Structures are given as structure tokens and as C-alpha cells.
């Protein structure tokens, strides 16, 4: 179990690297091209590993099949929009703000689960959603500009809405080979965004920065997703999600380390609120999981045991 926790935590760290890396690269690489290269980097890396696995031991691999491809297609469409909004958001916002706003993914995932799968929210989940939502609203106003609303925050929120659908569709393919899934998840959006970038004249950068963008995608998207899937195989959904949910906070910390600055007071209040909100959501997931495993328990037994 400890090994699985470390794997999921490493996955969160790798995902968090994307924001500070993108902050640096977006000064040299157009946003659309950056969105494409990160996906292509993830696809090339995980696709290579998947090919090696197929050549070595094809029989042990559980391939995508049948209706899995419909889920993958939906994820492809969703990820195309998400990545475009994400990189424009990172380009226009400070790294720590862009990172923290990604915690809104918890809210959108729960809302989509309710709308699509009729998973009724508990009072704890609603409380956690409310706290995270409040923190996100607070982050959207810049004290340095007279508390002016930052429209770019809507781009990050838009990306998290896409991820909310993404996370729910991924439930359908969670038991399949993670390398094949990561390869197919990233390949089509990478190609589509590259075509869009070419149409808007944004395929302009040096080979060095293109290479760094591909590497960023392989690490922050490809390796992160595959490690997360492996970790979840040994952990409960609530515990795994709670650990992985640290990635926006790690990303904010890394952004401040690599690009030192003194954030406004709203950042400090928001990070505390988001930690509380994420903690409440994780606790709710833990209780919900316990209920599923022990359906005969009464409501009054749903308390924290010493």
C-alpha cells in the first residue's frame, strides 16, 4: 500500500511539473503548438512503451475493445478543447493561480457524475464543492488591479469542466492497459491541435523548445497518467484521489520556486480554503466507499471510527 501511495504521489508531482514548465516554454512556443506538442510527446512516449510491451508479452495485455473506443473518442474530443483552454490560461495568468484553479476539477467531476450517472451528492460533498468554488471565485479577482476580474480564469475553469467529463468517461476503460489508453488518449488531440495551430500560423519555434515541449508532455501527461492508473489498482478510489488531488498545490509551489514572487493575500486564503475543500471531498469519498462495502450499515454508523 505504501508503494502504491508513493506511485500516486509521484504521479501528482509529474502532473504538477506541467505548469512551471509551460510558464517557461510559452514564452518561446505558441500556445496552440504547445498544446499539441505536449499531447504528441505523451503519445510518442507511451506508444513506444506500449509497442515494447506488445512485442514482449502480448498475451498479458488487456487491450481496448468494443465500446471502449466510444469512451476514448469522447475523451479525445474533450481533451482537445481542454488543452487549448489550459495553455492559453497558463499564458495569461500567474503560474500559482493557474495551478490552484485546477482544483476546480473536483467540483466539475462531481457535478458531471451527478448529471450523467445520477450519483447523488452528500452534504459533505456539497460542502467541499462550495468551499472549492468560493476559493476559485476569490482567485479570479486580482487585488493588484483593484480586484478586477481576470477573464483568463474562465479558461482554466473551462478546462476543468472538460476534465470533469474526461474523468467520468475514464471509468469505462480503467481496467485496460494504461499505456495503450494514454497513447490513444493523447494521439488524436495532439494531431487535431497541431492542424489548428498550423491554420492559425502558430507552428513557429526552435527544435530545442519543441523537444522540451514533447518531453514536458511525456512526463506530465504520459508518465503521470500511467503511474496514476497503476497506483489506483492497489488503492481505494478515495485514498488515491486524495493523494493525486495534491498536484495543483504542488504545481503552485513549483511555480513560486522557479518564478519567485510574493502572491496577493487572496492566494493564501484560497490555498487554505482549497485544502479544506479537497479534504472534505476526500473524506466524503472515503465514507461513500465504506457504505458501498457495508450496505447493511445504518446512516447513524457513518462516523469516523477511532
Radius of gyration: 19 Å
Assign a percent range to the helix content.
over 70%
Work out the count of structural domains. 1
Low-confidence stretches: 297-306
Q: pLDDT average, as an integer?
A: 86
Structural class: mainly alpha
Q: H/E element string?
A: HHHHHHHEEHHHHHH
Strand content: under 5%
Number of strands: 2
Strand order of the largest sheet: 1-2
Oligomer: single chain
Largest sheet: 2 strands, antiparallel
Defining key terms:
2 strands, mainly alpha, two-stranded antiparallel ribbon, 13 helices, 306 residues
Task: Summarize the topology.
Layout: H1 2-16, H2 18-25, H3 31-57, H4 68-92, H5 95-101, H6 105-117, H7 123-139, E1 141-142, E2 148-149, H8 153-170, H9 178-199, H10 207-232, H11 237-244, H12 247-258, H13 265-293
Antiparallel strand pairs: 1-2
Describe this structure in words.
- With 306 residues, the protein is mostly helical.
- It has one domain (2-116, 151-257).
- It has helices spanning 2-16, 18-25, 31-57, 68-92, 95-101, 105-117, 123-139, 153-170, 178-199, 207-232, 237-244, 247-258, 265-293, and strands spanning 141-142, 148-149.
- A two-stranded antiparallel ribbon has the order 1-2.
- Strand 1 (141-142) and strand 2 form a beta hairpin.
- Helix 2 packs across helix 12 (247-258) and helix 6 (105-117) packs across helix 8.
- Mean pLDDT is 86; it is low at 297-306.
